[in-house]
Specification:
Mean pLDDT: 93
Number of helices: 12
Number of strands: 23
Shape: globular
Structural class: alpha/beta
Radius of gyration: 24 Å
Distance between the termini: 53 Å
Largest sheet: 9 strands, mixed
Number of domains: 4
Strand content: 15-25%
């Protein structure tokens, strides 16, 4: 199946042959030089060779991060390459490459580009500030080709510029706890949208909206249209904190592998931000999000019950690891055989994404691709957040990338972050602090098969009587998206609580 997929990629590339092919001789090696203008000391780290279809439009360094129809990419490890020196790389030298059919590929026209990963905090090689990259070269490539192409690392990804306005502001904060964990000054960022009448009041309710995977503080701009003067969002300060990190999405929980992100947000950033902009405090502080942000918002409410007055979680990442996108991570098969991330009990490929009933991605294809562009991929991000460090210091894997076989023992460490387990086990203690605050919406036909975990929790919560104090819905026919009626309910709650006279606001959670 993977060779067929690769053949399709080759056919696609042949539809538009490259202009200015480097040489009539087919290229099989890449001579990468570390430009003097970019490197002032020897480089050790990941070096990637990215491919893109000749007429595909996107630079290879951008195209390689596509989730759907990703082109080939190879990752190499180099050590102590001096300024001005070159390394010659062949596919046989790669630590990892995608797709698996690449070594058997016939000569084909591609655009290629070299990327040196230098960012300590970014998740997308070649797009993160400080990463170095070469110009794009058009080549005819085959792994066994005799020719080589020169790629010179002469360009650097610049620091992004955040455009501010009267209403849109950037808040930057050096986190003491994350800085201590990582050993360098770790800057957290948040986009802030202020009400159109900002300054007329001393304080305002604050909504923290956590993005899904791939979003950053720049996503605050999505709220500008929905927070026009006179709309419900315009009565609030809206904050989009940046959860992105080297391994992907931090989901704002304290992690043994990537650091205390929950503490950094709740105990450090929020007090400073609200003191700066005039937040009204925990009784008027709310949290919401979609996808990974849906998981984050629910976790923040459950882990910090008094810090937020309500949570509206939309299509969250798995909240019960007995159904991790249809996979039970905790328990092996009845005969004791480990389960597999790539194939189900019948040996059929596990789907990872669907649209209108048609499978768009399989688990194996997705993981093999992100393993090359790692460590900032979605699946690796889960391991980085929930797993402790392994023997090599990197987050322990819960499955074998080569085979897909699950390490159920390693997955037991994830129980601490199993939201379903936490709520069901500790509800007697949590109920006085969470009753009325929790709202979860899943889509019946979620694009990434996330509804199963919510369905499982809902059934167990109903049996245990938890649904008297929370909203958990699986919305018929809804895919992976924000549930508009749920957001409207959040805005009504915020407005009603804010309209109550001072001193008559009920304790958070009593709404």
């Amino acid at each position: 199946m993977r060779l067929t997929r690769f053949a399709a990629l080759l056919l696609f590339s042949l539809l538009g042959p490259a202009r200015g092919v480097v040489s009539a001789q087919t290229v099989g090696a890449f001579e990468v030089r570390f430009g003097e203008s970019v490197f002032d000391e020897p480089f050790s780290g990941d070096l990637l060779i990215a491919f893109a279809a000749p007429d595909g439009g996107a630079e290879p360094r951008r195209a390689m991060h596509s989730w759907f129809g990703a082109p080939p990419v190879a990752r190499f490890r180099v050590d102590q390459v001096a300024t001005g020196e070159s390394v010659t790389l062949r596919l046989a030298d790669a630590e990892a490459f995608y797709p698996e059919g690449l070594p058997a590929a016939p000569a084909t026209d591609w655009n290629v580009q070299a990327i040196a990963r230098r960012s300590l905090t970014g998740r997308q090689a070649g797009l993160d500030a400080g990463d170095a990259f070469s110009d794009v070269a058009a080549v005819s490539f085959a792994p066994d080709g005799e020719g080589r192409v020169a790629l010179v690392l002469t360009q650097v990804v610049p620091e992004p510029v955040f455009r501010t306005s009267d209403r849109v502001q950037l808040f930057e904060f050096v986190s003491p706890s994350l800085s201590e964990f990582h050993g360098f000054e770790y800057v957290l960022r948040a986009g802030v949208l202020l009400p159109s009448d900002y300054g007329d009041q001393e304080t305002y309710p604050v909504v923290y909206s956590v993005t899904g995977f791939g979003g950053t503080h720049e996503s605050i701009r999505r709220f500008e249209a929905s927070a026009a003067p006179g709309t419900p969002f315009d009565d609030c300060i809206v904050v989009v904190p940046d959860a992105s990190n080297r391994y992907g999405h931090a989901v704002f929980c304290d992690s043994a592998s990537i650091g205390p992100w929950g503490k950094a947000l709740v105990d450090e950033l929020i007090p400073e931000l609200e003191a700066t902009f005039g937040g009204a405090g925990p009784e008027h502080r709310y949290v919401t999000g979609v996808s990974s942000g849906g998981w984050s918002s629910l976790w923040l409410q459950v882990a910090y019950p008094e810090a937020f007055a309500g949570c509206w979680s939309h299509v969250p990442d798995p909240i019960d690891f007995h159904d991790f996108q249809q996979i039970d991570l905790y328990d092996p098969l009845p005969d004791g055989t480990p389960r597999n991330m790539y194939v189900d009990e019948r040996g059929e490929p596990r789907p990872l994404a669907r649209r209108n009933g048609e499978v768009m991605l399989t688990y194996e294809d997705f993981v093999r691709h992100e393993h090359v562009t790692n460590p900032g991929g979605q699946i690796r991000s889960f391991e980085a957040t929930f797993s402790p460090p392994g023997a090599d210091g990197t987050p322990r894997r819960v499955f074998d990338v080569a085979t897909g076989v699950i390490d159920h023992e390693a997955a037991q460490a994830w129980r601490e972050y199993d939201i379903s387990l936490r709520l069901l086990t500790n509800w007697d203690e949590l109920r006085p602090r969470l009753a009325g605050k929790v709202h979860v919406y899943a889509g019946e036909v979620d694009t990434f098969y996330l509804e199963g975990a919510v369905e499982r929790f809902r059934a167990l919560a109903q049996e245990a009587g938890l649904l008297d104090d929370m909203v958990v819905e699986v919305v018929p026919g809804m895919p992976h998206s924000l549930h508009a009626p749920g957001q409207e309910a959040m805005l009504r709650t915020i407005a009603e609580r804010w309209a109550r006279p001072a001193g008559l606001v009920e304790p958070a959670g009593a709404n």
